[in-house]
Amino acid sequence: MLKLSMRKMKVNQRGIIDAVRAGGELGKRIRDMGLVPGTDIKIQGRAPLYDPVAIRVMGFTLTLRNNEADYIDVTVED
Amino acid sequence: MSTGTTIALAGNPNSGKTTLFNALTGARQHVGNYPGVTVERKEGSFIGEGQTFRLIDLPGMYSLTAYSLEELVARDFLVQEKPAAIVNIIDASNLERNLYLTVQFMELGLPVCIALNMVDAAQNRGIEIDAPKLSELMGIPVIPTIARSGQGKAELMQATGEMIDTVELSPPLIISYGEDIDQALAEMECEIADALPEASYPSRWLALKFLENDDQILEYCQRENADLCARLKSIRERVSQHISTTLATCPEAVIADHRYGYIKAIIKQGIITHHHDRNRLFLSDHIDRVLTNRFAGPLIMIAVIMALYQFTFTYSETPVAWLESLFGWLGGMVDANMPDGLLKSLIISGVIDGAGGVLGFAPIIMFMFFGIALLEDSGYLARVAFMLDRVFRSFGLHGASVMPFIVSGGIAGGCAVPGVMATRTLKSPRERLATLLTAPFMNCGAKLPVFALLVGAFFAKYQAQVMLIITMIAWAGALLAAKLLRSTVIKGESTPFVMELPPYRMPTFRGLLIHTWERTWQYVKKAGTIILGISILLWAMMTFPGLPEAQQQSFDLQRAGVTALAPADLEEQLNVIDAKQAETALRYSIAGKIGTSMENVTKFAGFNWRTNIALVGGFAAKEVVVSTLGTAYSLGEVDPEDTNSLGATLAKSPEWNPVVAFSLIVFTIFYAPCFVTVVCIAREAGSWKWGVFSIVFNTSIAFSLAVLSYQIGSAGIFGI
């Protein structure tokens, strides 16, 4: 078990959201889209310039920028 | 039986909402805008089995927290107009997230009926949903539908009708948000019920929104009862403090967590059966592996964008030509059948050209919207935004800004009118406005004749290189201007990119047609009158006050003299006199006076009065710069396609040299968009302020850059 920021995750790596530290507009958006603690995610891929990142959550695909992923902590199994 | 009851159609984006709306209403629908905002408002009626419903297709939304303008509009509609019911369209493959919105509808206390849509697609993904059980657990009707084929729509409407008839007032759903929040909610609810018994919102909902830190509700409370607002604020303060010390988070987060908790609890009771691993790769993901691949992705994207561009501008050529010849024929008819004079000139140059200007764009807009609707509905546009976001973000734009840029003439030869309208695909308001204002810098097809004239006359040896430089200047200028705007007038954080990549889907042809038609029609209807007005105004500026009597007589005398002599080249000599007269008249007109008086200023950019008039005319459409220059240099009508004689005249003129030509090229790239574009900018931005802004801002940039290049160029060449 390892805790890290979503930005640091590798493609195809899976994990469980531990905390969302964003407030305000961004925080609302992130939560509305289903990124709440306890949710399973998987890094699906990255854009050609490594940013934004596409993640798999609850069976659909979501994109967010790296500087937005910074606010999301994830627990991964090594 | 309910007749004419209002029902709102609401749901997440990409849940098939619009397809269902089309299936339910058929041709009985119309589009407008919500008052004061640019968000589309679609309305239609459903008639069937003795009931008539008025259906409102609300914009797609993920939540009632009202994060985007679309969500705000949708929420306002639900709260203020209180529809008899909400038909909540849910993507069956994506139940968990879609129910998040449903729960919020139920908290608002409006009767909700779920249309469990795309059950066929879910089945293909190995997802089976127990609709009756879901209905029982949530206490609301759940009807499986397939919007594309219309399956289930009758049952859906019937269930909705029954629900309206039986449910007088469905009590709002009450979810527990944990002890801290529940206690605060109860306290706030009492306060609100006491202070605002007449409020149009349920009091628990108001309290909830207050805890969620909703700006709009905060403002509402402040306005209605400042005292109450202060008390509520202090309660929220207390809870936030407590939650932040005990749980290291904020009330909004706790509320969202509990809503998802509630949903998970329902789903866990065997609602969904997965026949495969839920995160396994589906066809859509396999396509994405190729289409967003680091190497293949950008190449395919370029190919797709080129194809869209080709499609828009190549295939629309024929209908545009038809319209052109139609208006040409109309002009010819008027020319042949009306006596010469002001009225004839007004009808030909003001009305017919103006209306032609509006309708001439219609086929281009139609093709462009068809192409973009295809890319958008299939899900590819979201991938384009995903791939390009990193680049555009550095200039304060959004990945989706590329489409409007390209269509506007990012590949030389586009058109800013459909480009400006294409910004509708951008959902982030600040990025959209910045794109809207900078897209006209691209080299549209109307600017090309101007460039062709000047490059042909002054840079004949380096045509290709100069054209490439012109394209690069336009791109660099647009991106830097966007950056400038985003750090000054449209300041603000970039909008979060948290965005769904919808699975690839085959768009329905009917949906594409409806989409294309309504947008084209909106353009013609809304833009038509204003454009006609401006066209007449420009005509007047270039016609009045007309030549003084003495001058007029002198030209008549010359004509009479030539005719009396009857030389072999009579026709030619008369044409020369006509052209000379046209030039003199133009110089006398209001536009001419403006041109002459501007000389003192424009001389710094190397422009004489003739160029100035031509640039005034270019506000009608950029190719008019060429034809007006032709008149101003007394060459008569110059066809923008064939500029040899004008080019030769300019090349010989002592007032012209490559530096002047380049300065004029730079000015043409950047100065005020043509008025059709300005009208579109004002409409898309939702305010005339931005239309005027684009005229002033662009012209200032253009003039500064033209002066700069003229001054540097002159100093360099003539060694001053």
From TrEMBL, chain A:
Residues 4-76 form the Ferrous iron transporter FeoA-like domain. Coiled coil: none annotated. Keywords: Iron. The keyword NAD does not apply. The keyword Transit peptide does not apply. Pfam families: FeoA (PF04023). GO terms for molecular function: transition metal ion binding. It comes from Syntrophotalea carbinolica (strain DSM 2380 / NBRC 103641 / GraBd1) (Pelobacter carbinolicus). This is FeoA family protein. Transmembrane segments: none annotated.
UniProtKB/TrEMBL annotation, chain B:
It comes from the Bacteria. It is found in: Cell inner membrane. Keywords: Cell inner membrane, Cell membrane, GTP-binding, Ion transport, Iron, Iron transport, Magnesium, Membrane, Metal-binding, Nucleotide-binding, Transmembrane, Transmembrane helix, Transport. SUPFAM superfamilies: P-loop containing nucleoside triphosphate hydrolases (SSF52540). Its main location: membrane. It is a multi-pass membrane protein. Pfam families: FeoB_C, FeoB_Cyto, FeoB_N, Gate. Residues 4-166 form the FeoB-type G domain. One of its GO terms (molecular function) is GTP binding. The chain crosses the membrane at residues 295-313, 350-375, 395-421, 433-460, 466-485, 527-547, 659-680, 692-712. CDD domains: FeoB. Mg(2+) 1 binds at N22. GTP binds at residues 11-18, 36-40, 57-60, 117-120. One of its GO terms (cellular component) is plasma membrane. Mg(2+) 2 binds at A23, T25, G26. NCBIfam families: feoB. Belongs to the TRAFAC class TrmE-Era-EngA-EngB-Septin-like GTPase superfamily. FeoB GTPase (TC 9.A.8) family. Probable transporter of a GTP-driven Fe(2+) uptake system. PANTHER family: FE(2+) TRANSPORTER FEOB, FERROUS IRON TRANSPORT PROTEIN B. This is Ferrous iron transport protein B. It comes from Syntrophotalea carbinolica (strain DSM 2380 / NBRC 103641 / GraBd1) (Pelobacter carbinolicus). The lineage of its organism: Bacteria, Pseudomonadati, Thermodesulfobacteriota, Desulfuromonadia, Desulfuromonadales. The gene is feoB-2.
